[in-house]
Amino acid sequence: MSNPHADRVRDIAKLSTRRGRTKKKQFMVEGPQAVREALKAHLQSPVLDAVYVTESAYERHPDIAELMEQVHGTPTPEEGRRVFMRVVTDEVLAAMADSVTPQGIIAISFMVDTSFSVLWGENALNPKLIAVLSRIQDPGNAGTILRVADAAGADLVITTKGSVDLYNPKTVRSTAGSLFHVPIIQSVELEEFAEDVKSQGTVVLAADGYGTVNLQDLIDHAAVLRAGFSDETPAGVKGAFDLSRPTMWLFGNEAQGLSAEEKSAATMRIAVPVYGAAESLNVGTAAAICLYASAMAQHQTR
């Protein structure tokens, strides 16, 4: 393809907007790492509709070229369609892309949202570690938290109403492919979902700089219990909770944090200790600390 003004090119460029994504139920995946993970995901379960690559990018990434050969012509999630692939010029790719400096390859994926119906029950997901993005609005922060959740082995990522779209091209790029590894559900009513989660025996923790429970105390408590010793429950902890239990973490808006209503949906409010002079932590950094605290405790008991 060599015409940057072609209808197909314009249609793909529209996926940079939420309206365009919603209309097509598709989103754009840019860059070698994200496309690589999308191709791998497609081989497990169809997600892709098309892939566009420049000749130089195709030659630079022989592993991606091999994956493309395996995926080319396979069924898409839409009945009767097959995965379409084309070599395109740099000008065409630039006209399609959302990024300022495209990396030579774009995939078009169908949306990959998980259904509530598969969360609980026999042979269901039954998540042990959940991350909730509550009114997170920066695409980079959202992508970072999703990527951290993937690395920590989280089973589910949720966004509430008012959060950035996880299919925003900037968010997709910042996940570096993790969007295809972790089940997601978007625009959830937090209070209702939190009650559902609690009914399954999962504890809901709010990451809150002014929280009544210190995360370091929870980490120390979990370590003592793992060693086989008894330990006094840390101050402010409700019940016999320790970090190895199924947990859902709430992470709030960058500027405002969690609202009073969002905090009230939690079982406990947890503060990440700040030992230096910094006023607070970026939400992505706080999420990494909290999710890994839970992940390490949970994996020690498996």
TrEMBL record:
GO BP term, pick one: methylation
Top-level taxon of origin: Bacteria
GO molecular function: RNA binding; RNA methyltransferase activity
Regions crossing the membrane: none
Record-annotated RNA 2-O ribose methyltransferase substrate binding domain positions: 28-115
Enzyme Commission number: 2.1.1.-
Main EC class the enzyme belongs to: transferase
InterPro entries in the record: Alpha/beta_knot_MTases (IPR029028), MRM3-like_sub_bind (IPR053888), Ribosomal_eL30-like_sf (IPR029064), rRNA_Methyltransferase (IPR051259), SpoU_MeTrfase (IPR001537), SpoU_subst-bd (IPR013123), tRNA_m1G_MTases_N (IPR029026)
Gene3D superfamilies: 3.30.1330.30, 3.40.1280.10
A Pfam family assignment: MRM3-like_sub_bind
GO cellular component, one term: cytoplasm
Swiss-Prot/TrEMBL keywords: Methyltransferase, Transferase
CDD domains: SpoU-like_rRNA-MTase
Recorded family membership: Belongs to the class IV-like SAM-binding methyltransferase superfamily. RNA methyltransferase TrmH family.
Protein name in the entry: TrmH family tRNA/rRNA methyltransferase
Organism of this sequence: Rothia dentocariosa
